[in-house]
TrEMBL record:
Protein name: SUMO-activating enzyme subunit
Native source organism of the sequence: Oikopleura dioica
Keywords associated with the record: ATP-binding, Metal-binding, Nucleotide-binding, Ubl conjugation pathway, Zinc
Active site: 169
UniProt pathway: Protein modification; protein sumoylation
The keyword Lipoprotein is annotated on this UniProt entry: no
């Protein structure tokens, strides 16, 4: 195996991310004999990383993850070994990380924590035709797979869950679970103290499809249209004025939309009044203990956030920002009370608002080990034999590794199909503006095409869009002026039947977009709030858990083995639980050899 040692020592490896998996991985790579690594991470070390990112210690808090990871890993190398680690503190999205730059590497190893960056690296790796090892963990679960152009599905062949979203009218009009109030409170924080975002409206939605024909129109005459951000600033973020607007006037508006409250089992909200809770200055508070407590929390949270907003400018919501969290907890709990929904502790609100799944060091270590083994297997020219590996914990803390050979590629994948194509259905002339209390008619602009379709939905970084050989949207910043971006699609000649070519030069990614003009989009889940729908992007569902499920329960391609030496009865119990047959059990060598 001397040749393999030489292969390992001579190949350049790119590691993207130096967090939970990244730290473990860098350590593994160095100990396995890799000598030429590049590591990119944009972040600094947080105290909360120290429980599982063992290359970092207390004195490193606030310093660059990639640079400290390099420093710590170099201490593990044997004397006399010439190890080169190029550590960069920046985002993989930077234009310098182009396809030609990526081509210098033999393998790319992702150790990221977000879908956008993973999509971006997926495209770079496909365009450069370099094998990519993808990995991720969520609590005790994890997975790793190898992506190779033409051979395996790409990362975007299957749907990856982005943050769960909720229908706007549930959030704005008819919350029924704590999470609905928490999402509303996060939106409210952004509306009051952050950059205004018209997709994060909080006021009652008169365009709710549940409202009967005339009701929304009747209501719109009665409710003054307000830009929440400007209004809050004009009122100097007065906690009492804000309270009465969001928890009294808006709730009364909702109550006036009588159709909403006819649905069986739905509880009507009850509006609150600031003075009534706190007592009108005569010391006789009339609110319940709970109302008084949440109102005081609201008062403090608004005052603290206001001070920050005045000092630092627009704030952005962050689960680790105490002021932001206290605001969200207070606002969410007041709204829960109004809608008779169970209130949550501040800690629980933080967990739900921040979408926090505890990160487990062991899961990261197992997955990082698999990633390293996948890399070795690729260098052994055994890429076709690499497996998709899932890690799960099943009853009573037994770790299960399930592995399967490459799944089928998705022929309609927007990224790795022969000719990536999508159809976009939208009203090219006018669409319903769901962002305001009026049912307004708004045009779909080039800015929407750039930000909502090309960047958000199609994961492009700097898109150029052409129609009939003419550029209608350029990635060049000098060409991106507000006047051009405000033009509607019809103004630049895009209508029913138009064929556009969208291209991202950094990703070397090109996509054909067919435009279909529709006046009314088909409903999904009884909701019709979308401004556009993209088809031709049908993806297989894949989440960490559902993928694991597919491996074990689904087709007979699943192979697994329990780690450790548990008695046969226990193994059988696990197999039963996972619905695995005996012929689906193999030894871990099958995963790694
Ligand atoms: N675009 C990007 N470019 C480079 N590195 C990135 C990019 N996006 C995310 N990362 C890095 O990927 C790493 C992922 O690691 P991990 O999932 O352990 O997250 P974390 O931020 O360290 O922990 P947590 O989110 O649990 O607090 C992070 O260090 C993060 O900075
Ligand atoms: Zn694909």
């Amino acid at each position: 195996m001397v040749w393999l040692k030489e292969e390992i020592a001579s190949k350049k490896i790119l590691v993207v991310g130096a967090g939970g998996i990244g730290c473990e991985l860098l350590k593994n790579l160095i100990l396995a004999g890799f000598l030429d690594l590049t590591v990119i991470d944009l972040d600094t070390i947080d105290v909360s990383n120290l429980n599982r990112q063992f290359l970092f210690q207390k004195q490193h808090v606030g310093k660059s993850k990639s640079l400290i990871a390099k420093e710590s890993v170099l201490k593990l190398t044997h004397a006399g070994r010439e190890v080169s680690i190029d550590a960069r503190m920046c985002s993989i999205f930077l234009p310098e990380f182009s396809v030609p730059w990526i081509k210098q590497f033999s393998i790319i190893l992702n150790a990221l924590d977000n879908v956008s960056a993973r999509n971006h690296v997926n495209r770079l790796a496909l365009a450069a035709d370099i094998p990519l090892v993808e990995s991720g963990t969520a609590g005790y679960s994890g997975e790793s797979s190898v992506i190779k152009k033409g051979l395996s599905p790409c990362y975007e062949c299957s749907e990856r869950p982005r943050n769960k979203t909720y229908p706007g009218c549930t959030i704005r009009n008819t919350p029924s679970e704590p999470i609905h109030c928490i999402v509303w409170a996060k939106f409210l924080f952004s509306q009051l103290f952050g950059e205004p975002d018209d997709e994060q409206e909080v006021s009652p939605d008169a365009a709710d499809p549940e409202l009967a024909n005339g009701e929304a129109a009747e209501n719109k005459g009665n409710i003054k249209r307000i830009n929440t951000t400007v209004w809050a600033e004009e009122n100097d973020w007065d906690p009492k004025i804000l309270f009465n607007k969001f928890f009294k006037e808006d709730i009364n508006s909702l109550l006036s939309m009588s159709k909403l409250w006819e649905k069986e089992g739905r509880k009507k909200p009850s509006a609150l009044d600031y003075d009534e809770i706190i007592g009108c200055g005569d010391g006789h508070a009339t609110g319940s203990k709970m109302e008084l407590r949440t109102l005081r929390a609201w008062h403090k949270a608004v005052t603290d956030a206001k001070t920050r907003r005045k000092r630092d400018g627009h704030l952005s919501w962050d689960k680790d920002d105490t002021d932001a969290m206290m605001f969200v907890a207070a606002a969410a709990n007041i709204r829960c009370g109004i809608f008779k929904i169970e209130q949550k502790t501040e800690w629980k609100v933080k967990e739900m608002a921040g979408n926090i799944i505890p990160a487990i060091a062991t899961a990261n270590a197992v997955i990082a080990a698999i990633v390293c083994l996948q890399a070795v297997k690729i260098l052994k020219n055994n890429i076709k034999k690499t497996k998709e590996v899932s890690l799960r914990v099943q009853p009573a803390s037994h770790y299960i590794l399930a592995a399967s050979t490459f799944a089928e590629r998705n022929p309609t994948c927007v990224v790795c199909a022969e000719k990536p194509t999508v159809t976009i259905m939208l009203d090219t002339k006018k669409v319903k503006d769901i962002s305001n209390i009026f049912i307004q008619l708004k045009k779909f602009t080039l800015k929407d095409l750039r930000e909502k379709i090309c960047q958000k939905k199609l994961s492009m970084n700097e898109p150029d869009v052409e129609k009939d050989g003419n550029i209608i949207l350029s990635s060049d910043e000098d060409d991106l002026d507000e006047v051009l971006l405000a033009k509607t699609l019809s103004e630049v000649g895009v209508g029913h039947g138009s064929i556009l070519t969208a291209e991202d030069f950094q990703q070397e990614f090109k996509l054909t977009i067919h435009v279909e003009h529709v006046e009314e989009l088909p409903e999904v889940d009884g909701q019709n709030e979308l401004e556009f729908r993209i088809s031709g992007q049908e993806k297989a569902e894949a989440t960490i858990s559902s993928q694991a499920e597919e491996v074990s329960v689904g087709k007979k391609r699943a192979l697994s083995e329990k780690i450790g030496n548990e008695p046969a009865a226990k193994v059988q119990k696990i197999m039963d639980h996972l619905d695995l047959d005996e012929d689906e059990i193999i030894c871990t060598d099958d995963i790694i050899c």
